[in-house]
Design brief:
five-stranded mixed sheet, single chain, four-stranded antiparallel sheet, alpha+beta
Amino acid sequence: MSAKERLRLDALSRVKRRELTVVEAAELMHVSLRQARRLWKRFRARGDGGLIHRLRGRVSNRRLPEEFRQLVVKRHQERYPDFGPTLACEKLAEEGLILSPDTLTALLKERHLWQRRRRRGKHRQRRERRAHFGSMLQMDGSIHDWFEGRAPACVLMVSVDDATGRTLARFYPAETTPAALDVLGRWAQRHGLPRSVYVDRHGIYRDEDHPEKPTQFGRAMKELDIELICARSPQAKGRVERKNAVFQDRLVKELRLRRISDMEQANGLLEKFFLEDLNRRFAVSARHAADVHRRAPERLEEILCVQEERTVGRDWCVRWQNRFLQLETTGRTAGLAGQRVLIKQLSGGRLLVTCGGAALEYRELAARVKPLRAKPWHINNRPWKPGPDHPWKREGVGRASPGARFAPAAPPRTLHPARSPSR
């Protein structure tokens, strides 16, 4: 007997011993009073066997014929052994063997020909914090409605030390290469250069189409001798992800209470109060007291910037993002026509042109005036035919209607009145 049937047996046995009424037994069995009376009648007539479902052990009336079942299994094993149940049923239906995927799966399980392919979750292992402050820096951009509709959308670039949880964050209009370089530069100016940086696989940090070619951020990390680690999942850099959740909860409410609705004021709040309080309350001590940050170079700004090579024209001009830079005539610029120079875009949009590590003097020229192109003449030779509602085709305009009558013509007028005959 099943658990439900044993429950009914216990309730009806109490009714038989007059410990319960049929109404009370119906509540215990979770059935209606009408069904309880049926069960009580069957129990008195057949005993315990009357409570067992009467279809148990019998073949279903909707069972497929045995010959059809064997044919389906044989055909499946001959032609579609590696097909999924849905696709296999589609192919079997084309041969005239129509059945559902669940039925096919049941037939194969009966003959031990089907095994469920379980997709096991990826095994993850807890990674302990790094032992030293500065050993690893986790970075990520958090996109959120920080001002709750009071200001345009922006992103919070977050940097978290893996060993201590010490945090540095700043708002930027978007998660871009200059934003990532700037927040790393602020960390380096405050603490020094970390040994490694742990980021996601955003296009800022890694080019998926050309993994061998470093991005601007990757080039800067290589020049600074910082190991760049790209995580394969958000869980891998869970420390900065959890810090993002803290910011999205606490910082949003703090901005609301202080009625801050722009990035400049929000960055001021982060620097003066919020980050200091956050690090004081949630940062921990590293396992080892030694700080492994390296000293930042003097020209850190020239490394943490967007830089590309350009070719000097014959007129000693260099083009950069539709801007024309005229190199000044000095001893260093002699013979630079056709040579490659390096242009660096520093913070604030300031440009630095270098050749062989030496800075070159330049002045920016006005943008070239684009010549006005004469619009070509378009001659339309298509014949024009007035439409049916054109005024020319309206009745009474330009022609008389069929039943129209015109007034008689007036007698001609003479310039001089006729003279009466002389008497």
